[in-house]
Amino acid sequence: MQLKNHIGPVMIDLEGTELNQEEKELLKHPLVGGIIYFARNFESAEQITALTSSIHEHSEQTILTCVDQEGGRVQRFKSGFTLLPPLRSLGAAYEKSPEQGMALSKAMGWLMASEVAATGVDFSFSPVLDLDYGESEVIGNRAFHSDATSVSQLARAYIQGLTEAGMASVGKHFPGHGAVKADSHLELPVDERAVATIMEKDVVPFAELIALNCLQGIMPAHVVYSALDKQPAGFSKNWIGQVLRQRLGFNGAVFSDDLNMAAAGLAGTFTDRANLALNAGCDMVLVCNNREGVVEVLDQLRWQQDEKSVNRLRAMRVQKKISFDELKKSEKWAVAVEIAAELME
């Protein structure tokens, strides 16, 4: 395998808006295959474009670049970018008119993806496929709807927009984070519902989109679904291997949620967490906001990726790119921006 075509299994973060010397060295490590951007890494479209180019210049293998650009309260790139509405606003539109709601969802998917792709960034971790049961504050209006079929329809339209912009999709948080109150960033949530209930409700959007071959990526939840496994879904061979891969037939990339989150702490050291996630079936693990954890994993993890895993990750690369200036001259962009402003109201 040529190194430049290789994609390592570890995604890390950066401290600022430019690469520092340590980060330039980290990018040369063969285990590093991805960079996730946070708000602290962003100043403008021009700056993030330059930073992305710099990442590729300093790496010796393929690096995926990504961001959480859902809209609403989860949008890392703002200045110069369109402020995107929360997905819930699309669900509200869908309730009034399913056809109109889906059209708006497609437009917002395209708008988000086209702006992000114009900077050279490969993908956003979106869309959220969780159902909103009114239990989880960390999900809340990040979810399209409380009804599984409505979520499936809206997400399918949203992903059509991503596809038109040349961007892959990542559905999260499998098999569903919406029924637990606890925030997995701060503690370990436990969902005690029967597996049949979860499959009949929360898993439906994932299953339907997988059947339609819509999803290129999936992120499991840092939630324990105790009826099936004592491990969180992202560390579970039962959820990733048996349910996701075998039962649902998913053959895309699986990304762990951030291994620095409190809910991942039960697995031990950062290397233990990475090993558990990769052995469970994840193709790439995220280690963010903890540089010591990153260094530990890169020093201690021993993991040989197979070619299938690398190919799944390679499919996450952005396919269509135009400059930000070109994008903003298009009528399609102007119309989508107007729709976003109306939805924000």
Which key features would you list for this structure?
alpha/beta; 8-stranded parallel sheet; 345 residues
The residue-averaged pLDDT reads: 94
Can you count the beta strands? 12
Largest sheet: 8 strands, parallel
Choose one word for the global shape.
globular
Q: How much helical structure, as a percent, in the residues?
A: 40-55%
The radius of gyration over CA amounts to 19 Å
Count of helical regions: 13
Strand fraction? 5-15%
Cα-to-Cα separation, first versus last residue: 51 Å
Series of secondary-structure elements, N-terminal to C-terminal: EHEHEEEHHEHEEHHEEHEHEHHHH
Contiguous runs where pLDDT drops below 50 for at least 5 residues: none
In the sheet with the most strands, the strands line up as 6-3-2-1-12-11-9-7
Find the structural class using helix and strand composition.
Answer: alpha/beta
What report would you give on this structure?
With 345 residues, the protein is of the alpha/beta class. It has a domain at 1-67 and 283-314. It is 41% helix and 13% strand. The chain has 13 helices and 12 strands. It has helices at 21-26, 45-58, 87-96, 98-117, 148-164, 195-200, 204-211, 237-247, 270-280, 291-300, 307-314, 324-328, 331-344, and strands at 10-13, 32-37, 64-67, 69-71, 74-75, 123-124, 170-174, 190-191, 217-220, 224-225, 253-258, 284-287. The strands form 3 sheets. It has an 8-stranded parallel β-sheet. Strands 4-5 form a two-stranded antiparallel sheet. It has a two-stranded parallel ribbon with strand order 8-10. β1, α1 and β2 form a beta-alpha-beta unit. The longest helix has 20 residues, at 98-117. The relative contact order is 0.14. The model has no long low-confidence stretch (mean pLDDT 94).
